Amino acid sequence: MPLPISPLAPARFPDLPPIAGVRVAGAACGLKRNGSHDLFLAALDPGTAAAGVLTRSLCSSAPVDWCRHALARGRARAVVVNSGNANAFTGKAGDTTVERTIAGAAELFDCAAEEVYIASTGVIGVPVPPDHIAGKLPALSKSLAAGSWPDAAAAIMTTDTFPKGATRTCTIDGVRVTLNGIAKGSGMIAPDMATMLSFIFTDAAIAAPALQKLMSAATDRSFNAITVDGDTSTSDTALIFATGRAGHEPIADHRDRRLGGFRKVLEDLLVDLAQQIVRDGEGARKFVSITVTGAASARAARRIGLTIGNSPLVKTAIAGEDANWGRIVMAVGKAGEKADRDKLSIAIGGVTITENGQIVPGYDETPVAAHMKGQDIDIQVDLGIGRGRATVWTCDLTHGYIDINADYRS
Amino acid sequence: MPLPISPLAPARFPDLPPIAGVRVAGAACGLKRNGSHDLFLAALDPGTAAAGVLTRSLCSSAPVDWCRHALARGRARAVVVNSGNANAFTGKAGDTTVERTIAGAAELFDCAAEEVYIASTGVIGVPVPPDHIAGKLPALSKSLAAGSWPDAAAAIMTTDTFPKGATRTCTIDGVRVTLNGIAKGSGMIAPDMATMLSFIFTDAAIAAPALQKLMSAATDRSFNAITVDGDTSTSDTALIFATGRAGHEPIADHRDRRLGGFRKVLEDLLVDLAQQIVRDGEGARKFVSITVTGAASARAARRIGLTIGNSPLVKTAIAGEDANWGRIVMAVGKAGEKADRDKLSIAIGGVTITENGQIVPGYDETPVAAHMKGQDIDIQVDLGIGRGRATVWTCDLTHGYIDINADYRS
Questions:
Q1: Which of A56, A233, A332 sits opposite B59 (nearest CB)?
Q2: Residue A342's closest chain B neighbor by CA?
Q3: Tell me: the pLDDT tens digits for B121-130?
Q4: B165: part of which helix (H) or strand (E)?
Q5: In chain B, N or C: fewer CB atoms in 10 Å?
Q6: Where does A110-166 have alpha helices with state H?
Q7: Would you say B158 and B8 are in contact if contact means Cβ atoms under 8 Å apart?
């Protein structure tokens, strides 16, 4: 039974332009029971640099372990992603499937195994026959094209209710550069898991170590600044590939001033994709932005923001359209970061509710109650003790979440 | 609108015997809008030792701050607890109310201010008139009695659906000693908070520093081993008072061998109360025991257990009666403690599902599915890397939780 499209979904999938040196394809390979797209393949020109961020889970899946290994080299020629099966917790059988898939792609593209990246999402604990995915690659490679982004985005979905894509351009050294990204979020049907995958492609010429620095920094302010339910998948993967075909002089140092524009649009692109993931959170009816200022550090601000965004009490209050600032105080207190009750200030929808550790004199809840009835909720928390700031995004916790995660069963 | 009594509630409130040196009373003082009991008073004989564990929230309430101050002395003559108003985030006004309440009780019982303990639970951010509670104490003190435990337990409830009490006896040096405890849990109605309060009374003669060691250790394996939604209140308080009236020789060292029985029944009493709190978790329909063995340390085992018990994905799967062991793997992975995917073993209802990082050959879900339909769910996780073990308790995450926390509004 397909889930209804999230009420927070964007109007349409954006037009993703071709990127020099990148061809993509998406098709069905039989891992999803309903026969829909479940295999994504990307072919990258020789010379493509790779970087990425992987789950911190200590029970990471075989594909994640492989990506960690391959990223040490920082070169890429192919990306193979399947949905429908996470190949997680499948023991030695899972390792074998990864090896065979990698070997198949390396043969197809005449490259080293370490130039192939792999990700899997879907059912866990069910082994995929070792040659199943590798056997589908030759046929799929025939449909590789510069413009198949909608197919690509669809092929990595699990229970996402809409495909997620974004594109940005900037200039490096006066040369126009393009970035395309696709992502999948945390839609789940038992026994699937909340896996976040994202793949970014650009024609910029940036050496892998510099690309890694840029990707890590941008991820901290995007994918690491969202939460749906606070759960961490064994398979979370965000990779970026830079073909270097745009034509500017290659850049080796992430501090190079010519990267100013790229740094900015990369973060903007990842924030766009991250927000789309939140907008497709299970059962989400409200999109919540939480800005924390005045914290001891940016890191402390983010941790406080995520503690608020992860609190079931805060999230259910938002679902109930209840301006329950007391639960925000509670969440600030439990975050474990420096806070002073008597300096804490909270605003919802731009209306200051508390200052100096108590409710503002003559507080009128009317405008705040009206704001809570909207689809976009803004929460601002000022700690009043430092200059650290961060914004995080989450959604409300609704009956829909329970429906999807408790009542549905595949 | 009163909530229906939890389906996991015990059949009845236990008979709590008198404890030499302790008199208690419960009554209505007008803080709860519906006029039910909201003020608990305990009078303790001179010479009573006090110890306790308080919330780690960095936005702790004024009453918590006072208890922290008073516990440094370790002596007690009176306990004043109100429900209906948490006196949290009430700024200087909140501090004044605490001061006046303490002063009123100290005058009534002719004791030092630091011999009075106070706790408050209920609405936050709404100041209580400074003399409101103090003004009710003289009348309430007239009804102090050795047997008023049901009134006492009722007076500290917020949206708990049943009063929580337990009693145990043991011997110290051949002398019979009694412990009574009452608690309130995490029932909440906006804008209330998930506050846990518990008060333990005993006639044992144990010096305050030793009592503190015993209480801290027992709390770690009881109140700190339960979770309903992972949220931490600004007001969590668990206090123990020892009147010394049982008649045995006073004990000053927590390592004293004569305390063996007391240590055991104290933990048992706190586990009983802690489990009652879980059984009254908002919307709870299933009581879940999670035992983690083979971890690197007991601390690691508890953290892994609580990460499983806090996972919305695990809790919704249990609500859906789905033996979704993949989500347990996910939670183990995100706990941040040492784990080896290929040594992890998971059993539900005593049936081993995974071993050596994969599903056991010929796994038959039938008996596990039957277990999931029951009211008591047992999850066992073995990490296979050490000797650390812990048991934690939680409940499922149901539509009832959303109803109580989103849809109800006081």
A1: A332
A2: B91
A3: 887 788 899 9
A4: strand B164-172
A5: N
A6: 132-141, 149-155
A7: no
Give yes or no: A169 in active site. no
Distance from CA of A181 to the nearest CA of B (A): 26
Please name the helix (run of DSSP H) or strand (run of DSSP E) that holds residue A400, with its range, or none.
helix A399-402
Q: How many other CB atoms sit within 10 Å of the CB of residue A353?
A: 21
A-to-B residue pairs, Cβ atoms closer than 8 angstroms:
231
Report domain extents, chain B. 22-279, 287-407
What is the value of pTM for the model shown?
0.82
Read off the pLDDT of each residue in B142-157 and give the average, rounded to a whole number. 96
Among A123, A72, A129, CA closest to A98 = A129
Counting every residue, how long is chain A? 410
Query: What is the homologous superfamily of the domain A287-407 according to CATH?
Result: ArgJ beta chain, C-terminal domain (3.10.20.340)
d(CA B69, CA B63): 10
What mean pLDDT is predicted for residues B45-62?
87
* Distance separating alpha carbons of residues A230 and A317, to the nearest angstrom: 17
pLDDT confidence tier of residue A231, bands split at 50, 70 and 90: low
Specify the residue for token string 């931490």.
B232
**Sheet containing B376-382: order of strands:** B226-227, B388-395, B287-295, B376-382, B345-348, B351-355, B358-359
CATH topology of domain B22-279: L-amino peptidase D-ALA esterase/amidase (3.60.70)
Name the A residues in 184-223 with CB < 8 Å from any B CB.
188, 190-194
Q: Is B35 left (phi over 0), alpha (psi -120 to 50) or beta?
A: left
Largest CA distance in chain B: 72
* Residues of B in Cβ contact (< 8 Å) with A311: 229-231
User: What is the rounded CA–CA span in Å between residue A282 and residue A228?
Assistant: 8
Chain B neighbours among A 235-294 (CB < 8 Å)? none
Least trusted range by pLDDT, from A66-75, A155-164, A240-249, B38-47 = A155-164
Query: Under a CB-based contact definition with an 8 Å cutoff, are residues A269 and A168 in contact?
Result: yes
Chain A: closest CA distance from residue B169 (Å): 36
Q: What pLDDT, in 10s, does the model give residues A171-193? A: 999 999 999 999 998 644 323 34
**B chain contacts of residue A158, beta-carbon cutoff 8 Å:** none
Which of A316, A333, A406 shows the shortest C-beta gap to B60?
A: A333
| Confidence at residue B100, expressed as pLDDT on a 0 to 100 scale | 97
- Judged by CB atoms closer than 8 Å, whether chains meet at B316 and A401 is answered as yes
Over residues B62-81, mean pLDDT? 95
A410 contact B CB<8A: no
**Under an 8 A CB cutoff, do A326 and B89 touch?**
yes
* Contact (CB<8Å) A89/B399: no
| 3-state SS, residue B380 | strand
* β-strands A388-395, A345-348 pairing: unpaired
pLDDT digit string, tens, across residues B154-207: 999 988 899 999 999 999 999 999 999 999 986 443 233 457 899 999 999 999
**Quick check: B384 contacting A, CB < 8 Å?**
no
From chain A, the residues in CB contact with B319 under 8 A are: 402, 406
**Other CB atoms within 10 Å distance of the CB of residue B173:** 16
Regarding predicted confidence, which is higher, A58 or A237?
A: A237
CB-CB under 8 Å, B317 with A406:
yes
Beta strand B351-355 with A358-359: parallel, antiparallel or unpaired?
Answer: unpaired
Any bridge partners for residue A118, and if so which? Answer: A80
Task: Compute the distance between CA of residue A400 and CA of residue A285 in angstroms, rounded to an integer.
Answer: 9
Alpha helices (H) along B110-167: 132-141, 149-155
Q: Give how far B74 is from chain A: nearest CA, Å.
A: 26
CB contacts, 8 Å: B385 with chain A: none
